[in-house]
Amino acid sequence: MSEDPEVSRGPVVTPVRVVIGLCLVAPFVAMLWVGSYADADPDFIGVPFFYWYQMAWVLISTVLTMIAYKLWQRDQRARREGGAK
After folding, report:
1. Helix, strand or coil, per DSSP, at residue 47
2. Which residues neighbour 40 within 8 Å (Cβ) at sequence distance 6 or greater?
3. Whole-number pLDDT of residue 6
4. Nucleotide-binding among the record's keywords (predicted)?
């Protein structure tokens, strides 16, 4: 029996993939750590901190997810091109 050179030896952890993971985990950590934003002050345009902090994370999460997606696309493209050589 011969070994197939195409067999993957498990997931490859690269710095790009670590950044992707951090971009995707950051919103969860920020929202699950309620003690960091469970306060009414400071208010912004009359809206308590508790609410505008969560709304800000909706926008931040969108940007971080977009960054993670673009990095993933670039990583996959680089792996395809690297494997074709």
Report:
1. strand
2. 48, 49, 50
3. 59
4. no
